[in-house]
Amino acid sequence: MSDVTPHGVFLSAASQDAVAARRICEALRAAGSEVWFDQRELRGGEAWDQQIRRQINPVSSE
């Protein structure tokens, strides 16, 4: 796996999957990936989509 270049990862999971999502996040970070892990409880729909877009690229969504 030394030929793999790490990439940024956005991770969001349902609250019931929080423990597994945390383990995935930790493993990705340990492997050298940058991880933005949404641990807040966002609601689905347009508000969720807009908030995620602002977090990923805050300059272009203003």
Observed structural traits:
single chain; two-stranded parallel ribbon; 62 residues; alpha+beta; flat
Description:
This protein is α+β, with helices and mostly antiparallel strands and 62 residues long. It has one domain. It has helices at 18-30, 46-56; strands spanning 9-12, 35-38. A two-stranded parallel sheet has the order 1-2. The protein is flat, with a radius of gyration of 13 Å. The model has no long low-confidence stretch (mean pLDDT 76).
What is the strand and helix layout of this fold?
Layout: E1 9-12, H1 18-30, E2 35-38, H2 46-56
Parallel strand pairs: 1-2
Characterize this entry briefly.
With 62 residues, this protein is α+β, with helices and mostly antiparallel strands. It has helices at 18-30, 46-56; strands at 9-12, 35-38.
Beta-strand content estimate: 5-15%
Principal-axis shape: flat
Structural class: alpha+beta
Q: Total strand count, please? A: 2
End-to-end gap: 38 Å
Number of helices: 2
Residue stretches low in confidence (pLDDT < 50, at least 5 long) are none
Walk across the major sheet and give the strand order: 1-2
- C-alpha Rg, in Å? 13 Å
Any idea how many domains?
1
The chain-level mean pLDDT equals 76
Question: What percent of the residues sit in helical stretches (DSSP H or I)?
Answer: 25-40%
Largest sheet: 2 strands, parallel
Order of secondary-structure elements: EHEH
